[in-house]
Amino acid sequence: MKLLLGVLFLWLLSSEGNADDQEEYEKLEALRSLQFSCEPAMFPETPSSTVHALRPADIKAVTAIGSLQRTPGSGEDLLQSAGKNFLELSVATLAALISTFNPSVLHLSPPPGTAGETPDSQARDLLHQAEEIVELMKVDQMMDFQNDWKLITVFFSAEMSCSSYASTQLKNCVLENLGKLTAVLDFLYEKVPKAFINLVDATELTTASLVCQDYSNARNQCNYVEHSTLHDNILRWSYQDALEKLLESGRFDQKDDFTVVLQPSLQGRNLLLRLGKDDLITTSKTQVEILEDCIFMAVGLWNNMMQPVGQKQPYGATKIVQCPSQENPYLFTYRNSNYSSSLGTSNRKETSQERSYGTNFPCPDRFPSDTVPVSVHNLKPADIQVIAALGDSLTAANGAGSRPHDVLDVLTQYRGLSWSVGGNENISTVTTLPNILREFNPSLVGYSIGTGTQNSKNAALNQAVAGARAEDVPEQVRKLVARMKNDTRIDFQNDWKLITLFIGGNDLCKVCENPVRYSPENYTYNIQIALDLLHKEVPRAYVNLVTMLYIARLRELHQAKNNSCPKVLMRTLCPCVINPKNDSNELKKLIYFNRMYQEGTRQLVESGRYDTKDDFTVVMQPFMTNMEMPKTQEGWPDDSYFAPDCFHFSQKSHSQAARALWNNMLEPVGEKTDSQSMDDELVLKCPSEAEPFLRTYKNSNYTYPNQTPNYGSQLPCEDRSPSSPPATSVHSLKPADVRIVAALGDSLTAGSGIASDTLQDVITQYRGLSWSIGGDESLENVTTLPNIFREFDVTIMGYSTGTGSENDSNAFLNQAVPGALAEHLPAQARRLVSLMKTDQRIDFSADWKLITVHIGANDLCIYCKNPDHYSAQNYIKRIQETLDILHKEVPKALVSLVDVEDITALRPLFVDPSVRCPTYMADYLCSCVLSEEENSENLTMVREAIKAYQLGIQSLIESGRYDTHENFTVVIQPFLQNLKLPLDQDEKPDVSYFAPDCFHPSQKGHSQLARALWNTVLQPVGQKADSFDFSADIVLGCPAQNSPFLGTNRNSNYTPVDPTREPIENWGSELSCPGHTPSSHVPTSVHELRPADIKAIGALGDSLTTAVGAKIPDLQTDWKGLSWSIGGDDTLEIQATLPNILKKFNPNLFGFSTGTSKETAGFNVAERNATARDMPAQARALVELMRSSSKINFKEDWKLITILVGGSDLCQYCLDKETYSVQKYVMHLQDTLDIFYEELPRVFINVVEVLELSGLRQITASSSECALTAKKVCPCFLNPEENSSELQEIKRVNRDFQAGALQLISGGRYEQREDFAVVIQPFLRNTLLPLDSTSKPDMSFFAADCFHFSVRGYAEMAMALWNNMLEPVGEKQTYNNFTHDRSKLRCPNPDKPFLSTRRNSGFGNSDLSWEKTESSVPYWAVIVAAVGGILVGSLLGWVVSRRRTKKHQRKAGTENNIKTTPL
């Protein structure tokens, strides 16, 4: 990168810039961020002989020609002041890049005159420039013109701009310019040997430069004409298309040493000025920043030279400079890109435009009313005298009459063919709305004919403007009104007028570039302004407001491969529709805006705003609302319905739209077709005899939905009296006894979005309307819990009113905070207590208080991001902390704890695009619920969390913790446990119950919540509703006569069902072995080592050895004192662990872990997340711990070390087969044992064989809770399909892990020392899954995550390990019996009371193999094993292998004691 900066700096210094400029050049900070890491290359000994294998290092000379009139920017910009132009800068940049590969590359400045001396001077003729540059190269002494390779960039732009030409002349203009360019390329082809020509279309850049002469005042200078967007996009595409066809013809590829490659066009919006012709964005840029932007564009040109034809990208401020690849080290040409022409064949028949688009007209009654009607609701088709239209290019009919493939002709506005206002010919040949109406009234006026703009005479009252948006329609209305008033054919006051308005496509096409400007609110507002003008200015008018079509269907046409649609042009014309990826948030946002355009205009019309006088109405015509893409018989999108640009309608679509509109006009309001298929055979309807009028809301007997609905309720309760005498117990509290209401929670209780009409307003907190604490108005029109209580006692206080935050005075005791999590609830409780204590209106000690608490949705929404932090345990902890504060501080209170809702019920709101919900906001609103696929791990995790939250609350409240005195209790209100989503008449989610974000309830929803809450508060505990249907007809209940109290546990005579708790029995064991004394003298041989001889104990491993999950439900703590192999908490009678067993033989055993802290870990060096490669480091740490310990004699004391590792390696094997290979596993194990062998005296090492993990698949299949985490933790075992090659491979690797470890240890490597032994303990080799009494997996063995052991499981592990240690090698049990038996621990054999080693078991160095040690497993045998190491530590796996009866089968009768199932 320094080279590029240096070359450019020297080039700039060669200018005549002033000193200040030189200082500015040193600030090229943006360039310093360019990543340029290409390897320097020596100039090749033999330059390429063909241009199609041309490497950067082959290039000897770089230059450019071009007809850019001037450099974009102000007259005083950096480049102008330097006397340079964009061509020179591009040449300098390319030369600087190529110099990395060929330091001797020549930088030939473009010939003089490529940029004008003054802003308005014209560039010299391009052909003359080509002639001059050839002459310069020929005479240059530094190059060999005939033999050196040259890179020439030709910047082509029209010398005579075609922008001002009429559409009929554009084709000739483009061809003329193309002819001039072809002459230039022909000249270079003939005169220049060995040349690679970059052809860059700079037409738009030049146009932007010409129009915007002063960058600093760009907004005032860049006044583009109305049609510029469509006009310029098609013009630019036409140039590009013509150039592509020219080069694809192979005209310049006849010689092997010459080629021309079309690079992406330079566009003004890509440059420093950001001169978008539609949305001018001006920024204040320094001259250096302008220079940087120009260089970035030149770098973009270089990068495109590195990309194959067909894969080149638009220019941008790229930070990476592309390098030639090893596979393709050359500049890309058409030939070496294997590029096939983009010109395809269309599925449209060329004869399609020749067919007639007329219609048979079947209606017999074509007569007007007997007298001119005075009411729009009695208007017959024949009564209409004037027709008009407003809109965009779809109404201007751009391209409607264009021949297939003639894209340039789309600029022609075929207004006479327009669906809603065209009047060419008649109904027999051209179907349009005016031609239909002319069958009723031949004297109709206002329709357009022929072609032309809105200002042409032919346009008549078709005032639609190509490229128009909703914001432009009011101006169209003004012009239309003026035209009608000035038309002598029109009796403006008395003639009936039909006006059709259709707009919005261009808004949606640009919505992603300016979401605020093109928001649904602004769209609807602009439509309102236009309709208001018509309503005010135009008498006797029937206005068709055609609903905006479902524009996303256009993507199907773009994505189809069997048509000749100009895909690049489609992306340019409508980027916000075409460019988003499928299922992206950008696409979801577009669809939402589209639906809200439709909904906003519907609500506008149904407000009745335009039905205030009898001679005017606006009627929604919804036939395009859900319009599908028309299809061919083969099922492909049918492009014959579209103009050649595949964006506008062809005459075929205009005819269908006219028929559909006419039929809509005759259909009653409320029964109109809203999903017309354009490929249907549409038959024109006729006015009925009973209702021969154009249909309006009134003559359709349609009632608009109430725009100001009443959300009040009736309370039928007769007894509204308080207790007499006043209540002294919370269990005898009547509604009228409550004096204070309060609430804690999140945005639901804060009232976010309750009365909002827009997404932006959802942040408003309508606290006065909140279900549990709002007090606006009265119950007659606002249903809230306080308003219900005010019916019993009007003096009740604490409720919130109006809007605002929790800190506003009108919030009062509503202390809910939007976005609050359970962890924020205690702070809310403290503030609430403080407010109640200090408010003079409240008698804190005497007033009865009802406090509603509801929290948890936000925790669940981000649960999957951090399951540990938002665990049920932590959630309940915060709830408990909150309730403890209230219990301690607040007298006379009933706390109504509303159970956490099942928010997964809201998912359908964000699935169906036709539901008007902002699906693009799903991730923002509630990512773990709304953004997840059904049955995904994260969603399953949340569903399990909801259950855990609810069960945890139940356990907490039913514990009686808050029933210690008469004036306080907490009652669970469970009605939100099961939500039922409301549905509309189409069986789709009814969004009227929700705010615009479809997540928070609307006032309609809050009213229902308040009713349900009131009823639940009255219901007895044990009989409370546990479900809520938004759309149910909920009638307010009354207190029961025999028990008129708010329901509590006590007054409901409710007896809690004891929740499932940890078993009360301990998992200890009994061991009474005679003669368990140590050896008479300290043994010198490990093969004569007795249990009592062991002085120190240690362990290596992962989270299994740190005892994660031993105490349910805690998963964050390492319960090292309970670890099976190294824990020493309690005694053997209470908890079975290997150290507790050994302490029976040697009470002074040292090194075992206790508690949970690192300081009491002893010689337990296991770590969470450890894999085999971590074992050597743990071994070194353990050696150092033992060596430095003052509690043991390092050289003399016997040590016992247990190692278990490998589960994590297996679970991650498929993700990195090299790192977790069998060879690496064995190597790491060998390195570990080598450290002990070399450095640790007097040691016996247990290597516990890694278990077979495939059995884990069965337990995950039986429990969604286990499957959820397991697939994430152990993907390599759980993700493969059954019987797949992947599953077979990982099973084989599993067995190879076992075999590899045994082979290592059995090979004699560690048998040369008398005081050292390593023994495989295989009790985890084969596994059966234990079942409970219901034949389901017995989860009492496992921790809450289903991976680690509970204390019960660890106890079984310890006992199995101990027994393995005493069993001779070759006869060790390779399974574990998981029956609870406190007497199953074995004693050492009196005849041979030693820990078993290979030697004292009778084996030599080579007479034991893995196959020989594989003992059979009885059907009843059970092992459930855990392997630590991933996510929450390591994985727990269960494996089974059913085998032949073992020769030394022990205790076969045990099969009657346990129920198991083979895996």
Lateral strand order in the biggest sheet: 2-1-3-4-5
Beta fraction: 5-15%
Are there runs of 5+ residues with pLDDT below 50, and where?
Answer: 9-31, 69-83, 115-123, 207-227, 268-284, 342-354, 1058-1064, 1405-1463
- The assigned structural class equals alpha/beta
What's the total helix number? 38
Output mean pLDDT: 84
Oligomeric nature of the chains: single chain
Give me the count of strands: 23
Largest sheet: 5 strands, parallel
- The portion of residues assigned to helices is 25-40%
State the shape.
flat
Distance between the termini: 62 Å
Radius of gyration: 42 Å
What does this structure look like?
The structure is a single chain. The protein has 1463 residues and is an alpha/beta fold.
Features:
1463 residues, alpha/beta, four-stranded parallel sheet, 38 helices, 23 strands, 29% helix, five-stranded parallel sheet
Topology (SSEs and partners):
Layout lengths: L1 H12 L5 H7 L3 H4 L26 E8 L11 H4 L4 H13 L7 E2 L18 H14 L9 E8 L10 H25 L3 E7 L1 H9 L6 H4 L6 H21 L9 E6 L23 H19 L78 E8 L1 H4 L36 H5 L35 H14 L9 E7 L2 H5 L10 H18 L3 E6 L7 H6 L7 H7 L1 H4 L6 H22 L9 E6 L29 H16 L71 E8 L1 H4 L34 H5 L35 H14 L9 E7 L2 H5 L10 H18 L3 E6 L23 H9 L6 H22 L9 E6 L4 E3 L22 H16 L8 E3 L64 E8 L36 H5 L32 H14 L9 E7 L2 H5 L10 H18 L3 E6 L7 H7 L1 H10 L1 H4 L6 H22 L9 E6 L7 E2 L20 H16 L58 E2 L9 E2 L22 E2 L2
Parallel strand pairs: 1-2, 1-3, 3-4, 4-5, 6-7, 7-8, 8-9, 10-11, 11-12, 12-13, 14-15, 16-17, 17-18, 18-19
Antiparallel strand pairs: 20-23, 21-22
Helix pairs in contact: 1-5, 5-11, 6-7, 7-10, 10-18, 14-16, 16-20, 24-26, 26-28, 28-35, 31-33, 33-37, 34-35
